[in-house]
Amino acid sequence: MFSKAKESINPMNQVKKISDETLKKTYSTFSKLNGEHPFKTQVPEGRVEYQARYRKGGKVAFFNFDVAKEMGLIPKGHPEELNPDLEKEILQTFSLTIINEWDIENKIKIPQEDIYPHTYMATRYLQLQHPDKTGKTSGDGRTIWNGTVRNNGITWDVSSCGTGGTRLSPACNINKKFYQTGDPSISYGCGLSEVGEGLETLFFSEVLGKNGFKTERVLAIIEFDKGISINVRANPNLMRPSHFFSHLKQGNYTSLKQVADYYIQRQIDNKVWAQTTFKTDKEKYTYLAAQVARSFAETAAKFEDEYIFCWLDWDGDNILMDGGIIDYGSIRQFGLFHAEYRFDDVQRFSTTILEQRQKARYIVQCFAQIADFLSTKKKKSLSQFRKHSVIQLFDQHFLDCKHRNLLQKIGFKRAHQDYLLKEHLPLIIKFKKAFSYFERAKSKRGVYKVADGINRDAIFCMRDILRELPQIYLSRAELLSPKEFIEICKSSYAKRSDLKITPVRMKQINRYQTYYMALMDKVIATYGHNKSQFLLEITMRSSVINKYDRVTGDSISYIVEKVQKLRPKLKSEELYHLSQHFSDYQTLDPDQKKKNVEGHPRQKNIMQNLYSIVRECREGL
Amino acid sequence: MKLVLYSGGDEKDNVHLDKAFIELIGKKNPVVAFIPSSSYLSEQEFKTFVRHYSKFRITRFIHFPIDVPFDRILFQEVMRSDAIHMAGGNTFYFLNSLRKAKLLPELKKFVARGGVLTGLSAGAILMTENIDMAAYPEFDRDENQVNISNLSSLNLVDFLFFPHFKNSARYDKVFKSYTKLHQKVIYACPDGAGLVVNEEELRFIGRCYAFSNGHKFPIN
After folding, report:
1. Given a cut of 80, is residue A9 above it in pLDDT?
2. Which of A332, A348, A512, B106 could, after both became Cys, cross-link A434 (CB 3.0–4.6 A)?
3. How high is the pLDDT of residue A597?
4. Using alpha carbons only, what angle is made at residue A215 by residues A391 and A569, rounded to the nearest 5 degrees?
5. CA A52, A163, A322 angle in degrees (round to 5)?
6. Contact A190, A184 (CB under 8 A)
7. Cα dist. A245→A135, A251, A316, A366, A384 in Å?
8. B60 at interface of A, judged by CB pairs closer than 8 A
């Protein structure tokens, strides 16, 4: 019955009535994204379910061919362009709105043929902006889960944002009433999302994904009138710590165990975990906590070193279980180490980049508590896990990652990083101290208000000194004078008074250069390299890693503005190619092979505009 | 004045020009600065450039994009280097960036001081009086994406240079008519060929062609 209904409501039928059998087969995987999801049955108290209806008037504004191929939704050799059958399949699968409590209370009549056969779930998780604070009322406020697909041994979760307001939205719980989807009296909580949000996530996640960050990916953006959209996301596991924390807060052993077992099974099925069998529950859940400790140590270190602001907080909401980024609404990448930036969220200020480590540590501590609770069935106080072995693991792994990240930034290859970490850790620590002295130096201007919060400017651009230093050593074979050193790494935020060469600063400049060269010399001596050749290798790697124009949060906002202005003329495929070119250009992997990025002249002109934006904003927030 | 004008092609094509370049430098392990036409993905171009010239036992290179702000320290290092190579790309964009960065007079000073300046395709066109050849012929020209009207360039030589030349009637027609109207000689070189200027001496490497007063003359 339903397929008939879809035939009658889909606009694409007017273009092409019958698709051939081959194409039907080609796109058959889409039918698995029908609302059915193992979480529904395995964690009954972890979700609310909604019927859904087809939403008319949607257009495919963007489709991610790369992700779709990885997920097996389209074959590997599929051309990177939409055809009527594919467009039809995308719209049938994702263009939907839930039938929510308001619709039912108000007895809204929906033609039976528009209603999808399966229900879709919104998951429950802890969110600090809910007054309840235990996760009884919070979770996916405007998102439903479409289901799972499995390809090449990986199961992918797919969810869609902007599919209608659920009972788990903050607005419902703060105002104690249900809302009609799209109710203009509320903004956050009306159940809709916007094309701008989808584009911001698209550009940011593609860049960060190609630079080794774990992240959600945008699979599709379905556009409706007035800039409203459904943004479809995909990831091999979309569970967040907050999915666990709601049950933990409520002391709900059964549901917490169900969530943990569900999550563990997915990690094992996706071959993410090295260990797949466990003799006891204690071993299994402690392993889970250790995995979280490792992932969050890595993520917290990478966030700090790549200047990613992610507003990590105690509810574990804005992050995936593996430390992956989800929900780009509050994500930023700073051009410099603006370590005192705080986002102003009206009622409170956000955490800073440096406070993220403590929040990540807290999340790990909660998992130590979870592991114990699930093993003993007794929920102990969180404070008892302050010195748990997984916390020690987190602290140690965090430092290891910080050291490795620094060596990577300098330009050392993996093998050289391994050697230095094993044999010369004290030297790395000495260099790190000098490096941090400059990286963390702040402007005398002090804290001041910026567009969306407060900040105190960083005054040195470490990417510049890392990029230029090896070239200059190579050219003149001597150290830089203090004046030259400051001239190279001063940022546009630095005032004259910030740049004074004090005795302390002079000492740090000497230390920086001495330890930098000492690290080079250790590798050169051990591996028998020629000094010039080695510095040349570092020069080339560092020029990619520490590229002059690296994307920032501000630049992404301006880029999205620019793309939205162009959008009426920009076809879905063009947007896909643009996002791919842009993320390739922003890939800072020195081992990456050069890609042929020749495009249509119009596309080239757009890209030129995007480069200028990145350049303009390169030191900002 | 020491200049090398490369037309294009790969490293195998340019063996003789490279040899002439190394001879012009006349120094062991010189410092060579690489100026890309645009900073976009220039790190990859730099890598390719380094890999190529490392074969001549050169290990000291500087990557110097000029369409992004640069500091005085690196700039001075470039000007102190033994050779500067201007890469290929969009000639209009390249000239506009050089002008914006106020580098045209600096490059002239570099050459006057005895530094070796080399250029490939767009980089070679820039050494001439103007970049007319980038806009010529209509069927094979760079797009003036930066909309500049002042096409005057380094003016280091008294001829024009046309790279990637294909020996065909339609190119001949265009260049013959151009040289009927303009006084300058055009040296047109296919990939792998090029010119070497050593003080007063001009050497042609590979099969080159001269267009002058509406006539074509093969050289070599």
Report:
1. no
2. A512
3. 58
4. 160
5. 115
6. yes
7. 8, 9, 8, 8, 17
8. yes
pLDDT at A596: 60
- Residues forming beta bridges with residue A157, ordered by sequence position: A148, A235
How confident is the model over A403-424, as a mean pLDDT?
A: 98
The pair of three-digit structure tokens given for residue A181, joined into one six-digit string: 């989807």
Rounded distance, CA B158 to CA B155, Å? 7
The shortest C-alpha distance from B29 to chain A (Å) reads 10
Q: Write b or e for each residue in A427-457: b if 16 or more Cβ atoms lie within 10 A of its Cβ, otherwise e.
A: ebebbbebbebbbebbbeeeeeebeebbbbb
Residue A570 corresponds to which tokens in the numbers above? 């920009």
Spatial distance between the Cα atoms of A300 and A223, rounded to a whole number of angstroms: 35
Nearest CA in chain B to A476: B77
Better-scored residue on pLDDT, A176 or B77: B77
B 18-57 residues with CB < 8 A to A: 29, 31, 39-41, 43-44, 46-48, 50, 54
Handedness of CA A562, A565, A571, A572 (dihedral sign): positive
Select the residue from B27, B46, B53, B59 to test the A interface by mutation, using most A Cβ atoms within 10 A. B59
Average pLDDT over chain A, rounded to whole?
A: 92
User: Does residue A13 have a pLDDT over 70?
Assistant: no
- Cβ–Cβ contact B112 with A under 8 A: no
How far CA B91 is from CA of B123, B136, B165, B196, in Å, comes to 7, 12, 16, 20
| Most confident region among A70-74, B9-13, B53-57 by mean pLDDT | A70-74
The secondary structure of residue A382, as a DSSP letter, is G
Structural domains of chain B, ranges and CATH numbers in brackets: 2-219 (3.40.50.880)
Among the ranges given (A12-21, A272-281, A299-308), the one the predictor scored with the smallest mean pLDDT: A12-21
- C-alpha distances (whole Å) from A367 to each of A241, A251, A501 are 9, 14, 47
> Distance (Å, rounded) from C-alpha A433 to C-alpha A147?
48
CB pairs under 8 A between A and B: 75
Q: Who's near B192: CB < 8 A, 6+ residues apart?
A: B7, B8, B9, B13, B14, B17, B206
- ipTM (interface predicted TM): 0.87
* pLDDT over threshold 90, residue B143: no
Chain A contact for B141, CB < 8 A?
no
Query: In angstroms, rounded to a whole number, what is the distance separating the alpha carbons of residues B108 and A479?
Result: 29
DSSP B75-105: HHHHHTSSEEEE--S-HHHHHHHHHHTT-HH
Question: Does the beta-carbon distance from A472 to B145 stay under 8 Å?
Answer: no
